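Changelog note: in this version the structure field was regenerated for every chain. One regenerated record is shown below for reference.
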Amino acid sequence: MIRLLLFVLAVLAAPIKSKMRLEAENAVLLHQLIILRRRLEGRVRLTNNDRWFLIVLYRWFPSILRILTIIRPETLVRWHRSGFRCYWRWKSRSLGGRPPIEARLRALIRQMSMENPLWGAPRIHGELLKLGFEVAQSSVAKYMVKRRGPPSQGWLAFLRNHAPDIAAMDFFVVPTIGFDLLYAFVIVRIERRDLVWINVTKNPTAEWVARQITEAFPWDSAPGYMIRDRDRIYGGIVTRRLRAMGIRDKPIAPASPWQNGVAERLIGSIRRECLDHIVVFGEAHLRRILRLYVRYYNDVRTHRSLDKDAPVSRPVQRTGSIKSFPIIGGLHHHLYEASRVKRFFAINISFLPTFQEAQFCIDGTADSPLLGRAERSTPGARRVAPEGARG
């Protein structure tokens, strides 16, 4: 019974449907003639109104595809799908929502996430709230730098955390005017690149090296690790002395001087800035020259790895007249504020130079009396081997 009813309805609607389909096909044919008459030269040019007319008729009467001649049926179908996407893109557009975040705040979020790899979105969001920025935590998570692996610190942070407990030592050879060889021994701390100890000898032995290490680190100032090369001068006496002082011995790989780069760079600076310009007469002469250079290196010379500061940090001098003082006979000069020097000596009488140092200053062969004040004020902080010491 239901099927019979559906058949009757289809028979009754067939004339009406056929007539509407025929009128649609006639409209398509007529519109194609209008488009062809409008063509002046070359290929047929269709406007947006033409496309819209054909798409609407195709949506209602898909049978018009068989009478299209000026375009291919695939083109009309592609237009219809493109219009479908544009329509729903317009319909699902954002009508409001959160206000956009300014570029400065986005850059700050990225900077904080890059500089603090262990921080998550809640931590960065809390810091931004303390800085006066009103932003949602989800927005912070959106603009953070995405990382593939788990968060971890960088090599620079790792080295900065371990550098205070690391020191390095090494030897270098200096020829004299009589073609003899003198051996200079240096110990440098990695953290501030400060030259802790330097001494000279003609005949280096393991006992002599062990004694230098003991004098360089009195009391509880010994580092946790000591980097050295595999020279046979560091015998069992040196390793036992390091172990007794609580220092872990860390020899580098064979033929790998770059693994002790800080000490090698220090030796290169000593040669380029001092010894390459001086003819050494003997052991006492070399010891005195190196003592002057150590004071210049620790208290005056700026280092790129320390943000252009000295190992013993120098304050910024913004007022007063600038004076120049010769160091190592004028090989280098120390620029300082004259009023600061007067004020320093008026307060710190105990730091006045000895007669020998003052004589060197007058002759222009020593550095400023201000240099090396740390090594006299703090026992064992940054000391140089006494001039009378012998191996």
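Spot check on this record: The chain has a mean pLDDT of 78. The beta strands are 166-175, 181-189, 195-201, 225-228, 248-251, 322-327, 332-337.
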